[in-house]
Design brief:
Layout (H helix, E strand, L loop, with lengths): L11 E2 L70 E6 L22 H5 L4 E4 L4 E4 L2 E6 L5 E6 L13 H13 L6 H7 E8 L2 E6 L11 E2 L11 H4 L18 E7 L4 E6 L15 E6 L3 H9 L10 H9 L5 E7 L4 E5 L11 H9 L3 H8 L23 H6 L6 H10 L3 E3 L2 E4 L2 E2 L1 E6 L6 H15 L3 E6 L3 H9 L4 E5 L3 E2 L3 H4 L27 H11 L9 H14 L2 E5 L2 E7 L3 E2 L19 H4 L3 E2 L4
Parallel strand pairs: 2-12, 3-9, 18-19, 18-20
Antiparallel strand pairs: 1-21, 3-4, 5-6, 6-8, 7-8, 10-11, 11-12, 13-23, 14-20, 14-22, 15-16, 16-17, 24-25
Helix pairs in contact: 2-3, 7-10, 14-15
Length: about 625
């Protein structure tokens, strides 16, 4: 009978469309800060430890002597510098809300996900294991129609109230009532009933066998999907409008204050944290603040005023070449290869056939993309998952070589000719219409995913296909992607987190919706795919335990169905360079000691914070 112990490990968590916060480390001119450090400083307010900022309230900036606590620091923060870890993050305009269930309800990458709201389980992809936390184990019945969660009886909310099955039941009830909430689609699709025989046990009866339902409680890619709310805080609130400010969760840090004028979130260590025996962080304060322009960010880092900057690889290399010594650089392999998605209901008609999709793959020069566009250089993606050792169990090199993803424009032209997409002069036509493809990307113009799209457009032009690349950051991309208002995309191929069928199952026929209807976030079929071979094997895989080695032949069939039919295109493995400052803190992950996920916007970064030790720098 499968239990938590079997989680060592299938892999990755793609449960739907978890927003890829930090997916690009683009440096944007978000603040008018310069090398003179002329942005305002704030008066420390030691009285605010759990009070935070009331909904809609502001904190007026006041220029005062620096409160950093170290003579050499000019960090302009309201806490002692030698007790504080300072993060840079991408732009935010959400400062007074911590509601994870509604659109724009919180800014997840500014500390709430990493150190305040904990998960039942954490997937440590670097070590190939899952860490039980708010739950001690999970267990299915023999046919996977019932899941039992055993909660950690020591867990407490930050206000001292116990974390119990009543909170879990309340959350499921809330998600049933509010069908538009994050996590609600999963509950509506899979859950029949939820009961609690005692305060530490939750029994979830499923509508059909599902050996993966526990994935929704695991921090996989960035965070978990079903987030448990404290019943005693939420039950008297309107969950649609509740700001949850200050947030009450179980993590080792509580909100100290939010300073909108400095784009800053300040978190303070909770002295009454329930799990000190396992994790007792040394930093007293954590500050997330909006990134500066590249030059200012680099100068702040070299002054020791930032511990984790958001800097692109060339900027990081410039810091190193400048002789700055107090740093560690780590290359992190992201779980999502860069990828392209093709709308099979595209008005062009090109992607309705496997030959059209294969032709587009042959027009991708993955080696050039990996070596020339992506920095630091990467490698071509041969499988639709990250090239981590823990993913080797899903490989089948014979199948991969049979459908090798290579650059071959001549083969692409042959395939196009074969489906009647013939050249009329310099332009190909299909069904009497010139082939013109609308390719969208969620990143700004000039970012790598945009350049990847442009590279494909250049190659496609040579065989007579016109590709128009459009940047649609934020909600415009999401709206187009989920409603099918596109022909192709260039972004990331997320799916295989804990096992590959998390990707394959996204293309099942039952999830199909015609163009104009919005697919369900977190479950979806954004490519309007209807491929019988892929649908059949994904449906079979839905019902089997991915941790059972006897099921590997079925997963091989899934891999073959994916690579043969290509509903989406793996492009390159994604490598991100991270920089850590060692002036005030040691214990960062290194190339030789990747003890947990090093991406600071992931929930797993909790364990990096817990591993830090002060250097003694004053």
């Amino acid at each position: 009978m499968p239990t938590t112990s079997s989680l060592n490990m299938s892999r990755r968590h793609a449960l739907g469309t978890l927003v890829r916060l930090g997916a690009t480390l683009a440096v944007l001119p978000l603040l008018e800060a310069c090398s003179s450090n002329d942005y305002p400083t704030l008066t420390p307010n030691p009285a605010t430890s759990q009070t935070g900022v009331a909904s809609g309230a502001t904190v007026a900036p006041t220029t005062v002597p620096n409160a950093s606590g170290g003579q050499g620091s000019s960090a302009n923060i309201p806490t002692p510098r030698n007790q504080t870890v300072i993060f840079e993050q991408s732009k935010t305009d959400i400062f007074d809300s911590f509601n994870p269930y509604i659109p724009n309800g919180e800014q997840a990458s500014y500390g709430i996900t990493q150190v305040c709201r904990e998960c039942m389980f954490y997937a440590n992809f670097e070590q190939g294991k899952v860490i039980p936390w708010l739950a001690t184990k999970y267990e299915y019945n023999p046919d996977y129609s019932q899941l039992t969660l055993s909660l950690n009886q020591q867990a407490k909310w930050s206000d001292g109230q116990p974390y119990t099955a009543a909170d879990v039941l309340f959350t499921f009830s809330m998600l049933r009532e509010h069908t538009n909430f994050v996590g609600a689609a999963q509950v509506a699709t899979f859950v029949d009933s939820v009961t609690a025989p005692d305060p530490a046990t939750v029994v979830i009866k499923l509508k059909q066998p599902n050996p993966r339902f526990h994935y929704y409680f695991i921090a996989g890619i960035t965070q978990d999907v079903i987030k448990v709310a404290p019943k005693h805080v939420w039950e008297q609130q309107d969950a649609n409008t509740f700001h949850n400010n200050p947030p009450v969760y179980t993590g080792p840090y509580v909100l100290d204050r939010v300073i909108p004028q400095q784009f800053m979130f300040v978190w303070k260590k909770n002295p009454n944290y329930w799990n000190k025996a396992s994790l007792d962080p040394a930093p007293q304060y954590l500050i997330w603040r909006q990134l500066l322009p590249a030059d200012a960010s680099a100068q702040e880092f070299m002054r020791g005023n930032t511990d984790i900057p958001s800097l692109q690889f060339p900027n990081q290399e410039a810091i190193k070449s400048n002789g700055y010594q107090n740093l560690l650089q780590l290359q992190f392999q992201d779980p999502c290869p860069r990828g392209m998605w093709m709308n099979q209901d595209s008005p062009t008609g090109l992607f309705a056939s496997v030959e059209g999709r294969q032709a587009m793959s042959y027009l991708l020069n993955r080696d050039t993309v990996a070596q020339s566009i992506w920095q630091p250089p990467s490698v071509a993606a041969k499988y639709p998952w990250a090239g981590w050792a823990a993913n080797d169990k899903w490989r089948n090199d014979d199948i991969q070589k049979k459908y090798d993803l290579v650059y071959d424009p001549q083969k692409a032209a042959q395939l196009l000719d074969g489906i009647g997409a013939t050249k009329q002069g310099d332009t190909r036509q299909l069904n009497g219409t010139p082939l013109s493809i609308n390719l969208i990307t969620p990143v700004p113009v000039g970012d790598p995913e945009y350049q990847i799209a442009q590279s494909l457009a250049v190659n496609a032009k040579q065989v007579g296909i016109d590709i128009q690349v459009r940047s649609l950051p934020g909600s415009p991309f999401n709206d187009a992607y989920y409603t099918g208002a596109y022909d192709m995309t260039s972004h990331w191929l997320c799916g295989s987190a804990l096992d590959p069928n998390q990707l394959y199952s996204q293309f099942e026929d039952k999830l199909y919706k015609p163009i104009g209807q919005r697919v369900a976030s977190g479950i979806y079929n954004p490519t309007r795919t209807r491929i019988p071979e892929l649908n059949d094997i994904a449906t079979k895989l839905d019902a089997v335990n991915p941790d059972d080695a006897h099921n590997k032949p079925l997963f091989d069939q899934g891999l073959e169905a994916f690579l043969k039919n290509l509903p989406a295109l793996p492009v390159i493995q994604t490598v991100y360079p991270f920089l850590f400052n060692t002036t005030y803190w040691t214990g960062w992950p290194t190339q030789d000691n990747r003890y947990n996920i090093s991406a600071n916007w992931w929930a797993q970064f909790l364990f990096v914070v817990g591993n830090l030790k002060p250097t003694g720098q004053q």
